[in-house]
Amino acid sequence: MPLRSVKPLILAIDDDEVARESAQVLLSRWGYRVNLAENGEKGLHLMRQNPPDLMLVDLQMPGISGLEVLAGVREFDPTIVCVMVTGHATLQSAVDAMKQGAYDFLPKPFSPDELKHVVGRGLERRFLELEAKELREEKARMEANFVTLVSHQMRSPLAAVRQLLEVMVKQSLGPMPPAYGELMDRAVARLDELLHSLNAWLAMSRLAESGIAERRAPTALADILTALAQRTRLEAQAAGQEVVVEGDPGEVELAVDRETLLEALYNLTSNAVKYNRPGGKVTLEVRVHPYQVDLSVSDQGPGIPEAEQPFIFNDFFRSKSPELKNKPGTGLGLSIARRVVKAHRGDISVRSQPGQGATFTVSLPR
Amino acid sequence: MAKVLIIDDDADYTLATKAILQAAGHQVSTAADGKQGLEAVKAQDPDLIILDIMMDSIYEGYSVTTTLRGTPEYMDYRDVPVLMCSAVKTIAGERFTLPPEAELAQGDDYLDKPFTAEVLLAKVEKLLAG
Are residues A47 and A150 part of one domain? Predict the structure, then answer.
């Protein structure tokens, strides 16, 4: 454990100068680092500045009492071990201190051996607690990232299987009986669907942790539009559709996380292609306003039922409409897009009338 | 026909990529990590290198390109085109962060895993022609 590699730090609080000096001498002789304070207030201040592993606290001091110091320590960090030093063996106050979370007490006068023993045991306790705390935190992290971990673990082997299937589908190693061809194509389609879902889940959990704000950098609007149009054309051509770009991005620059924003916009354009009517048109339109930029993506598909429009940006929402529900999808594309746009302090909205396609508009601040 | 070197620690990808390239008439050699890969560059003198980014260490692929492009020992090979690939970059919000001085490490083109035969062959042909 890394904490053990530095010398443990002990803070001794005592109003008696002689007691402080002897603590200093003994503790540093045993290899500990030592801080001293002559009253509770200074002690707590020093504790916050430089948190110790263990504290020796005189119970009876002028000003803040030892018990109050103890309460302050417990509040600041309960893993700091407190040993109470009691002047004239007042058993009752020692018991009170133990009840309030002190680890042990040392009645004055004590021998160096007694001090050494109590401090040694106390530090052991401190390191066990730190270790336990670290394990608890690790467990919490694992739980929080469960989806990410599982998706990652599943994704690599599945992606490798997909790659191997590619060799068979393309018959790179020699011809395959034609009857297998259709089975192979179906296997590939299902696998692609699954990989797509895994990617979407991963994107979701990444977005929850991600630092879009920190990655924002000046990016030309024209560059975003070009990249978006290029990728949309590839998809549209494969589906026998046309892409039209309207509006002039001019010289406008936006502070965006380019890659993540593009992924979000691809979700919109690939939806447009997916839900478009056969041979339909996908329109990308850019409008530059004084304080914002609107980017919209329109298709000529069946449109989105009005009743469903308020819900389409929710996680895992899938349309119930007969024309839409049979298309493959994860129900995450739009919700990912919304998260990304929100992280850019922008907004996303939809306009659609049944039978007349849908238009998604992303507004980003300039 | 060209000589292609695949550097990838995942035997399944190596197998699949090799099959696709051989079917297209290329001569393929393979290496399973960055160190073997750099040795293979000298031994095979390839026309093109296909290089996985994440091998034993996260950026092992990048250190291979940095060595290829930046050390006198590999002077003769610094113009060999490099096609980088990875299974990680496809996910929104997940990316490699490279220090600015790492421009050398980028390679000449990039390919997401898994890839179709068409996309792989198109990139390979383009790099070989380029």
Answer: no
Q: What is the CATH number of the domain that holds B9?
A: 3.40.50.2300
Give the structural domain span for A235. 213-365
* Domain boundary residue, one of A178, A209, A240: A209
Contact A259 B10 (CB under 8 A): no
Write the DSSP string, A304-356.
--GGGGGGTTSTT----STTTTTS---S-HHHHHHHHHHHTT-EEEEEE-TTS
Contact partners, residue A31, CB within 8 Å, separation at least 6: A7
Q: Which of A154, A179, A209 is the last residue of a domain?
A: A209
Average confidence (pLDDT) over A162-189: 90
- Residues A81, A139: one domain? yes
Complex-level ipTM: 0.80
Q: What is the mean pLDDT of residues A331-359?
A: 91
Chains A, B: CB pairs < 8 Å: 70
Q: Min CA distance, A348 vs chain B (Å)?
A: 18
| Cα A137 → chain centroid | 14
DSSP class of A220: E
- Give A84-131 pLDDT, tens digit per residue: 998 765 778 888 888 999 999 998 888 999 999 999 999 999 999 898
Residue A144: phi and psi, rounded to 5, are -65, -35
**pLDDT for A292 beyond 50:** yes
CATH code of the domain in which A323 resides = 3.30.565.10
A263 touches chain B (CB under 8 A): yes
Same domain, A186 and A223: no
- Which residues in chain B have their CB less than 8 angstroms from residue A202's CB? 91, 94
Q: Which chain B residues touch A263 with a CB distance below 8 Å? A: 92-93
Residue in B23, B94, B115 closest to A206 by CB: B94
Q: CB distance A195–B114 less than 8 Å? A: yes
